[in-house]
């Protein structure tokens, strides 16, 4: 018979079996400890550290703790919650996580944790890593720029004759997972798909496989808590016209967020009652004629003009809202960040298949805005007050946020309101 021990979790007295894994004990008693590298069949790895808890005053990875008599465990203190969030933010900043184009979106454990923690943007500068994307294996693609080095694949995926398929190579910040091509060939299609599903992010892909389920039916689409952003609790003062003033702009984006903005159909009439638009592609007013209550920014900064416009919006708008992934993290345009600018220009203007024969010129004139070396998220250029995630965010979602900010109302965003399709 297993010995029973007394422990406490966040001040609650619990009787459990000695040696039982803390994540499991906590779950059995209704306390959620988030994990990423931890996997049901594996010995706990303790690599990702998002399960960090405090045991008898000392911080340690929760997944590696075995229950022992007298343990006093803290899980949900403000500083531990903050640390977990910071770890996820750093993982986002370190890798190239372009969720709108990622095959794993909706089924990704890291993305789900980010939603759950109410994370809309990382406060750390984006690294835009340029690690190898390996298409050579027979069935798989290894997208090292999304890998969080959790080690699940290294520990778990073996051939039937006992050989490793994945291993860590190099050291320090250069560490990455490498696939053994010979061993990978031995895996059946089903085994390859299992390896892809085992990866908590979209680093292991199986060629030819895409999301089979539409948005709304994926694993994490309907899970998670509602996100409750902090909202000012006093309404903004209206302008003399009795309305709120809104400015909008599209920087390096596809204009999809603005199209979504208009998708509100006849409810737009309600908005027009409440607010008027100043500088915006919707009004075609080219220069600010008034100070705005809110500025909505679509797109990131890809050239010098984007930076100029964004800084002007910061000055002329009391509250600045980045809406859509391009404004929040660079989005699709930022996918050029791991190719040198010169190569991008050569591909676009000299060597691309759509280049007109004989027109071998990279445009350059003092009137043409200068391209930046990278595409930058808006918060790396100016202070952003609020973020509306999605690609594009839905019209209802955008207006719900804007109206709540204008009127100083609390609002929450249900998990399934986020849209990345
Ligand atoms: S792996 Fe894909 S879905 Fe998951 S966080 Fe990264 S980009 Fe987003
Ligand atoms: S490829 Fe996936 S499973 Fe393997 S270490 Fe990276 S994140 Fe973990």
From TrEMBL:
The entry's cellular-component GO terms read: membrane
Q: Which key words are in the record?
A: 4Fe-4S, Iron, Iron-sulfur, Metal-binding, Oxidoreductase
The highest taxon in the source lineage is Bacteria
Annotated InterPro entries: 2Fe-2S_ferredoxin-like_sf, 2Fe-2S_ferredoxin-type, Hydrogenase_assoc-protein, NADH_UbQ_OxRdtase-like_20kDa, NADH_UbQ_OxRdtase_75kDa_su_CS, NADH_UbQ_OxRdtase_ferredoxin, NADH_UbQ_OxRdtase_Gsu_4Fe4S-bd, NiFe_Hase_small_N_sf
* Domain spans labelled 2Fe-2S ferredoxin-type: 3-79
Q: GO biological process: what's one of them?
A: ATP synthesis coupled electron transport
Q: Which cofactor does it need?
A: [4Fe-4S] cluster
Molecular-function GO terms, alphabetical: 4 iron, 4 sulfur cluster binding; metal ion binding; NADH dehydrogenase (ubiquinone) activity; oxidoreductase activity
Q: What is this protein called?
A: 2Fe-2S iron-sulfur cluster-binding protein
Per UniProt, residues of the 4Fe-4S His(Cys)3-ligated-type domain are 79-118
